């Protein structure tokens, strides 16, 4: 595999034009946390972070790890305990509010509830940082508004009142408003918190598409581990020891960072599947599963839910047989073979069988 | 990408118009004019419309009594009604948005009682009572003093409320605290009343009933300047108020300087509510009811529209209240505070029942 010519890749090897693209956001030696009544409660310290144009970054971490505090500090809402945050090269705590609003837009988890406020009015508010005192829309503003509406596909409810929308639609409107604010950086604090799964997927996909298409840097904090792992260019992972580890999702999974971050007793992150292990296998339930593809995946899921340990070493074997569009399962143990047509029937059978086994074990 | 191709082509995408229904605005202007004339016509003595219009257009009138009544009594009173209606409505509108609470208004959050407290302290200091008579005795300089005292009184209460709102995020709790604060101030004023002379108490009670008739022509000039400044400030802040509808965090993220804007709104609100309370007594319900009516009628939350339309509708309703208070054809006058409550509370009830989304108006 290795030859004498093999060299180690470093980012120095990137093309100069790409390499020298300025960071949209940079945090140096950043400590975050709260100061109350002279008592300092640090949440994260010595953080070094950067965001480049076109990057879609997900901020993950267990509850209480300080995701919101980090978001608030990066957005300049809260002062850092130490260190600096630069947006577009300027210190966030010195920058003028209106200038900051042209560089950074925010989408929050909180629901906007305002009666008699129609969607289009909310969208036009996005042009506030650029508008004159009375907020007249110029043609240029209207073009940007139209582009954003087209990008997020919210044409249908432009005339609706904001309180008539579903949570998902409302969050899309707020994201469109952020796009209309036309900033190189968009930060979203748990934008999918109140949404159902299809809406969560849609919002995350929309955001990633925006990052690709518009070269905006998009940072969002989320609890959607699964979606984040699938879509993010980079993960920022808040660790229990107040540090923050960044990297490509796959790297973080492979080097065990995820396991460390989410480690709790009886609650483990599975490196193989990138999900949390919900089921714990029981010792006496061992089975070998033979098959492949989708059928294998879902059969395995069902067996694991029942507490089975899938292992090559077991004499008990479940075969998946597939012919054209038909499939069945064959269970083989101690010379007998039984055929099943549904997973439900397998589970039914296995439950009875292993219940019996359990009692025999007890006798021994 | 499929989503994009499915959507309406770029050029065909029509952006909705932001301009309000002009017919409504025109109707509001006409209703102000209509009730203004009606207010001048009706009263203990009914003066013919033609004569009123003649007097208004400067042609005078054959009947000296009518001329005097209209010029010296009814015109100042009607103008005061217009000013009071506009000022209280606009201050209520600003407070509802600032506190994100549909029940906020000058009389609810203690701003009015703050104003009366300011006036009471002024009167106590100068040895007078808070009565219209006493106010009149103070002259032009005194008029400014009253506006200042009332405005400072209400500003102090508003600042306390704002200070509390930083700690109390829950609007309902804030509202209750505001009500209690209001009661506290009223109690302090009552204690002072208790130790006052009987005639002073009567004067004070008369003042609490509210009256539009106590403002003289010279005081009217000062009152109009104060109100115009207040409304101008509100109009200037209308864009900021729009941003505040999305909540303070969003507003700040869009570049709004919350501190400056809050101060601007507090100055405007306390000037408007304070000045009117100082001169006309505490007038309830207008400040809560009119903004809701405007939102319901115009179906908008855009303050660039709401501020002027609140002025128009507030003026109209106040003129109507004044007409009712005069009990046309009778020689007695109802206290204006009672009339605004009688007309105002059904309006508030109607709005709340009709507009089911009132709870969601402000989170």
- Tell me the count of domains of chain A: 2
Number of strands of chain B: 0
**How would you describe the shape of chain A?**
globular
Low-pLDDT segments, ≥5 res of chain A = none
SSE pattern of chain B: HHHHHHHHHHHHHHHHH
- Unreliable runs of chain B, pLDDT <50, ≥5 residues? 1-7, 128-132
- What's the Cα radius of gyration of chain A? 26 Å
Summed up, what is this model?
The complex is a heterodimer of chains A (364) and B (363). Chain A is α/β, with parallel strands linked by helices.
Structure in words:
The complex is a heterodimer of chains A (364) and B (363). Chain A is of the alpha/beta class and 364 residues long. Chain A folds into two domains: 53-76 and 97-263, P-loop containing nucleotide triphosphate hydrolases (Rossmann fold); 286-363, Double Stranded RNA Binding Domain (2-Layer Sandwich). In chain A, 34% of the residues lie in helices and 26% in strands. Chain A is built from twelve helices and 17 strands. In chain A, the strands form four sheets. In chain A, strands 6-7-8-3-9-10 form a six-stranded mixed sheet, sandwiched between helices. In chain A, strands 14-13-15-16-17 form a five-stranded mixed sheet, covered by helices on one side. In chain A, strands 2-1-4-5 form a four-stranded antiparallel sheet, covered by helices on one side. In chain A, a hairpin with a 2-residue loop joins strand 1 and strand 2 (39-51). The longest helix of chain A has 21 residues, at 343-363. Chain A is globular. The mean pLDDT of chain A is 83. Chain B has a single domain (22-40, 47-353), classed as ABC transporter involved in vitamin B12 uptake, BtuC (Orthogonal Bundle). Chain B has helices at 2-6, 22-41, 49-56, 64-98, 111-126, 132-137, 139-167, 171-194, 198-209, 217-236, 238-244, 248-253, 258-280, 286-298, 303-325, 336-354, 358-361. Chain B is an all-alpha fold and 363 residues long. Chain B is globular and about 65 Å long. In chain B, helix 5 packs parallel to helix 8 (171-194). The A-B interface holds A 75, 77, 97-102, 104-106, 108, 110-118, 120-122, 124-126, 128-129, 131, 133-135, 137, 142, 145-147, 149-151, 153, 155, 158-159, 161, 163, 181 and B 3-4, 6-8, 10, 13, 15-16, 18, 102, 236, 239, 242-243, 245-247, 249-250, 252-257, 295-296, 299-302, 304, 355, 357-358, 360-363.
């Amino acid at each position: 595999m290795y030859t004498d010519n093999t060299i180690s890749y470093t980012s120095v090897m990137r093309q100069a034009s790409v390499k020298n693209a300025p960071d949209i956001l940079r945090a140096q030696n950043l400590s975050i946390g709260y100061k109350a009544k002279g008592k300092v409660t640090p949440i994260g310290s010595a953080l070094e972070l950067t965001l480049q144009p076109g990057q879609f970054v997900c901020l993950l971490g267990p509850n209480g790890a300080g995701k919101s505090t980090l978001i608030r500090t990066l957005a300049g809402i809260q002062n850092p305990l130490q260190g600096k945050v630069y947006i577009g090269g300027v210190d966030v705590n010195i920058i003028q509010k209106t200038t900051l609003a042209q560089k950074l837009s925010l989408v929050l988890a909180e629901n906007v509830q305002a009666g008699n406020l129609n969607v289009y009015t909310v969208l036009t508010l996005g042009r506030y940082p650029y508008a004159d005192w009375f907020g007249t829309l110029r043609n240029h503003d209207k073009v940007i508004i139209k582009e954003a509406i087209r990008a997020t596909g919210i044409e249908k409810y432009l005339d609706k009142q904001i309180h008539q929308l579903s949570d998902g639609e409302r969050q899309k409107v707020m994201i469109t408003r952020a796009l209309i604010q036309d900033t190189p950086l968009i930060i979203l604090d748990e934008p999918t918190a109140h949404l159902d799964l299809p809406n969560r997927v849609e919002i995350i996909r929309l955001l990633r598409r925006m990052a690709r298409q518009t070269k905006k840097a998009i940072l969002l904090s989320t609890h959607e581990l699964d979606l984040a792992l699938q879509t993010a260019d980079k993960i920022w992972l808040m660790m229990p020891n107040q540090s923050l580890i960044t990297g490509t999702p796959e790297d973080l999974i492979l080097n065990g960072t995820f396991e460390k971050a989410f480690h709790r007793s009886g609650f483990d992150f599975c490196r193989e599947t990138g999900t949390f292990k919900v089921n714990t296998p029981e010792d006496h339930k061992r089975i070998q599963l033979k098959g492949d593809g989708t059928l294998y995946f879902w059969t395995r899921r069902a067996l694991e839910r029942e507490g089975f340990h899938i292992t090559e070493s077991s004499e008990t074997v479940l075969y998946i047989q597939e012919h054209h569009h038909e499939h069945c399962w064959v269970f083989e143990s101690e010379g007998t073979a039984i055929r099943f047509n549904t997973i439900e029937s397998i589970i039914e059978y296995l439950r009875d069988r292993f219940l019996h086994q359990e009692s025999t074990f007890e006798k021994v | 990408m499929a989503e994009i191709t499915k959507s309406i082509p770029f050029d065909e995408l029509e952006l909705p118009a932001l301009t309000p229904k002009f017919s409504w605005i025109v109707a509001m202007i006409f209703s102000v004019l209509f009730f203004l004339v009606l207010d001048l016509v009706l009263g203990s003595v009914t003066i013919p419309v033609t004569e009123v219009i003649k007097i208004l257009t400067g042609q005078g009138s054959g009947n000296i009594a009518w001329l005097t009544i209209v010029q010296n009594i009814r015109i100042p009173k009607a103008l005061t009604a217009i000013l009071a209606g506009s000022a209280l409505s606009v201050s209520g509108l600003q407070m509802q948005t600032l506190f994100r609470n549909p029940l906020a208004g000058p009389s609810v959050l203690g701003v009015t009682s703050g104003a009366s407290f300011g006036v009471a302290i002024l009167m106590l200091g100068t040895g007078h009572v808070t009565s219209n008579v006493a106010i009149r005795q103070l002259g032009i300089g005194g008029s400014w003093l009253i506006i200042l005292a009332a405005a400072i009184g209400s500003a102090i209460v508003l600042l306390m409320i704002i200070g509390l709102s930083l700690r109390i995020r829950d609007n309902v709790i804030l509202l209750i605290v505001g009500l209690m604060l209001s009661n506290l101030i009223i109690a302090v004023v009552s204690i002072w009343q208790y130790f006052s002379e009987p005639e002073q108490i009567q004067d004070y009670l008369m003042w609490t009933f509210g009256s539009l008739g106590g403002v003289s022509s010279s005081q009217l000039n000062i009152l109009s300047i104060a109100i115009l400044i207040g409304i101008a400030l509100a109009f200037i802040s209308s864009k900021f108020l729009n941003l505040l509808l999305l909540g303070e965090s969003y507003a700040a993220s869009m570049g709004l300087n919350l501190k400056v804007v809050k101060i601007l709104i507090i100055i405007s609100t306390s000037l408007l509510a304070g000045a009117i309370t100082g001169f006309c007594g505490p007038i309830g319900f207008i400040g809560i009811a009119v903004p809701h009516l405007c939102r319901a009628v115009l179906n908008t939350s855009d303050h660039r529209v709401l501020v002027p339309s609140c002025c128009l509708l507030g003026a109209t309703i106040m003129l109507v209240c004044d007409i009712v208070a005069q009990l046309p054809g009778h020689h007695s006058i109802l206290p204006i505070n009672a009339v605004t409550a009688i007309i105002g509370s059904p309006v508030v009830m109607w709005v709340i029942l009709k507009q089911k989304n009132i709870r969601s108006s402000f989170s």
